[in-house]
Design brief:
Blueprint lengths: L2 H6 L5 E5 L4 H12 L3 E6 L4 H11 L4 E5 L5 H15 L4 E4 L14 H29 L3 E6 L3 H4 L5 H21 L4 E8 L12 H4 L5 H15 L10 E4 L3 H6 L5
Parallel strand pairs: 1-2, 1-4, 2-3, 4-5, 5-6, 6-7
């Protein structure tokens, strides 16, 4: 086999996917497992998490479910400890867990705004720092991939809290990529978007969840696996936009 196959091979790697029991997280977990990684499903849902572990195991992959609330520092620390205890190492952290509710800016309370920031931005921060400590202790470096959104790039109608959180993830990614480079830790972000760009329409927020769109999930998962693998060994501090051209279509000047 050639160098592409060799660099994509993750058979000696251990990866965590937060929110890995469903939708996009499930697709990423499947992609990493297909590349050979042992996958830890970090999921708050007590049904989808164990189901995903069983699905991966039934397909012949090494997998483990750990109940995780990314908003809780102790829970995230337990996730890392459980991963290292079981597999002896941590190589990849995919900080994918997130969510939001739609509302106009003037209808969002301080509590509601903070809840979305807490889940998306602070949850990502907790996963990044806990993973980095384990990677530094392991002495092998690693790859951290943070799930942002095209809403970080051009805003989120009826979702300013979400747009702010996802934009914050981009700043976090750049900052810790620079700080942890000396430890061999690469940190990148993926900014997914909708599929409607070729038709000239702006993606809708419902499409961004990717719940029922296999093409969306597979393409974002493929980008994530690339960043996790040695194919991206020279890539850090980067945001990979995966949106079928939606970002540049949205940003293009419109006629009068």
């Amino acid at each position: 086999m050639g160098f592409i196959h060799d660099r994509l091979d993750m058979s000696e790697r251990v990866a965590i996917v937060t929110g890995g029991g469903r939708n996009l997280g499930r697709g990423i977990a499947l992609g990493l497992a297909d590349a050979g990684a042992a996958v830890v499903i970090a999921e708050i849902d007590e049904e989808t998490g164990p189901a995903m572990e069983r699905e991966l195991r039934d397909a012949g992959h090494d997998a483990l479910f750990i109940h995780t609330n990314v908003r809780d520092a102790d829970s995230v620390d337990a996730l890392i400890a459980g991963t290292v205890e079981r597999f002896g190492r941590l190589d990849v952290m995919v900080a994918n867990a997130g969510g939001m509710f739609q509302a106009p800016a003037l209808d969002i309370s301080k509590r509601g705004f903070e809840a979305v920031i807490d889940l998306n931005l602070i949850g990502t921060w907790l996963c990044n720092t806990a993973a980095a400590r384990a990677m530094i202790d392991g002495g092998r470096g690693g790859s951290i991939i943070n799930m942002s959104s095209q809403n970080a790039l051009y805003g989120a109608l009826n979702g300013p809290h979400y747009g702010a959180a996802k934009a914050g993830i981009l700043g976090l990614t750049l900052s810790v990529a620079a700080e942890w480079a000396e430890h061999g830790i690469r940190v990148n972000a993926v900014a997914p978007g909708g599929r409607t760009a070729r038709a000239g329409a702006a993606p809708r927020e419902g499409q961004l969840a990717g719940g029922g769109d296999p093409e969306y999930i597979e393409n974002v998962a493929a980008a994530t696996v690339y960043l996790a693998s040695d194919l991206a060994s020279w890539v850090t501090g980067h945001t990979l936009v995966v949106d079928d051209g939606g970002t540049f279509t949205n940003a293009a000047p419109r006629g009068a």
